[in-house]
Amino acid sequence: MTALILAALAIRLSWSFLAPSDAASMDRLPDQIGYVDLGRNLLERQGLVRIDARFDDVIRAGRMPLYPFFVAGCGASVTVIRMVQALIDTSTVLAVYLLARRWLTTRPSFLAAAFVAFNPFLIFFSALILSETLFTAMLAWAMVMLSQRNGVIWGGLVLAGSVLVRPSAIGLPVVMGIAGAFLNRSARRDRESFWALPVGSTMLFLTVVMLLPWAIRNRVVLGRWVWTSTDSGFVAYDGFNDQATGASDQQSLSGLEWNRRLRRLSEVDRNELLEQHARQWIAQTIREKPARLLQLTAVKITRTWSPIPLSQDFCSRRNMVIALLFAIPFDVLVVLGLWKVGMPRVFKVFLILPALYFTVMHAMSVGSLRYRVPVEPLLAVLAGAGAFAVLGTVGLPAWRRIAGSPGTEVVEG
Fold it and tell me: Which of 46, 148, 384, 408 could lock 41 by a disulfide, CB 3.0 to 4.6 Å apart?
């Protein structure tokens, strides 16, 4: 396992130095520049602010705060951020191994960790100045904690903190807290005492407590209670308008009329106006063209689970070949792990729930491959079990059992 972790770290550190960092490359994903600017402004004590050139306005709550503070903690240096993210992403390899060992034997757990160590999507994103790597690690370690009998509160705290990285995770602490409770209940003899803690309401409380300082800050700075970000309106309108394609391009807001209208509004008012238009479009489309809404939803789900990059900037032949060589076998093994492997059903549900959650969340906004990347380490546990089952069927050394009692070794057969 040590060798695998060192190999994962070496790959990520190498990519962190080899990945282009010139202005043109950074501009291919403009969010990178935005995060670096936020980090630099924090270091210069200007606050968590940035300039939105579209409206010539200062944006104070356009991004959740935790990742910009992480960027500032790295000195807003692209090289340092990438190196630290290489370490963080490598920690996800260990987290997946520990999560798999909760219910699987050593060797399928090792295969699960290997799928994370050599996952080209995780490696690629580890060198981008985006929140995916930090959020992925927080999700993976939270799942490890939630899978432990006494770790539900700690896992809930980490998941609640992850909302300060990715606002779409706002419902995840409650969902996964309850799932963790069922998982641990199935492994306990004294089931009644475990339910002394009202898990769902506790997770909701932890989420509110974690977001409260940010909401208070926004109340002071903006004069309104903003619990997540003022970018949610742009995301909502991007996903639901007459020109929506399922992708995030905001082309529908580039018209002169829209630009003039939005320029006259405050940051919070812009957000509320766009959210209102998105809701009105959904209501009207349900009445008049329900097939259009169903088609758009299907496109978003397809985009989220695409085996290849869909962006024009990243869909080179090399990238598509690498992505397909990994994604297709990986997805097949995930399905095999769900279908064939004799793990407890509650553990399978526990692993697949985050993927279902984010599929639904992004069907209600916009779809992109980057939004599913954080759940791939969890699916790797199923893929590892599926791969181990395949090895046994083709005559390679096989073991009598893939799954065992929680936290126990299974002796080779």
Answer: 46
When pLDDT is averaged across residues 223-244 and rounded to a whole number, the result is: 92
The span from the CA of 111 to the CA of 409, in Å, is 16
Residues 165-176: what's their mean pLDDT?
A: 96
Q: Mean of the pLDDT values across residues 34-39?
A: 95
Instruction: Indicate whether 188 pLDDT > 60.
Output: no
Q: What is the DSSP letter of 366?
A: -
Write down the pTM of the prediction: 0.91
Q: Which helix (H) or strand (E) covers residue 60, if one does? A: none
Type and span of the H or E element at 403: none
Any long-range contacts for 30-35 (C-beta under 8 Å, 24+ apart)? 31/129, 31/130, 32/128, 32/129, 32/130, 34/62, 34/63, 35/63, 35/67, 35/68, 35/71, 35/129, 35/130, 35/131
In 47-153, DSSP assigns E strands to: 50-52, 57-59
Count Cβ atoms below 10 Å from residue 220 Cβ, excluding itself: 8
61 vs 150: CA distance, rounded Å: 35
Residue 256 is classified by DSSP as H
> What is the C-alpha to C-alpha distance for residues 261 and 411, in angstroms, rounded to an integer?
69
CA distance 15 to 121: 12
Name the residue among 243, 232, 96 with its Cα closest to residue 163. Answer: 232
Closest CA to 183 of 207, 206, 151, 137: 151
Q: Which residue has the higher pLDDT, 314 or 172?
A: 172
CA 413 – CA 398 distance, rounded (Å): 8
Q: Assign 373 to helix, strand or coil.
A: helix
Spatial distance between the Cα atoms of 109 and 96, rounded to a whole number of angstroms: 8
Q: How far apart are CA 413 and CA 404, in angstroms?
A: 13
Q: How long, in residues, is the chain? A: 413
The closest alpha carbon to 4, from 121, 123, 117, 173, belongs to 117
Specify the pLDDT at position 408. 45
CB atoms within 10 A of CB 91: 17
Helix (H) or strand (E) run with residue 307 in it? none
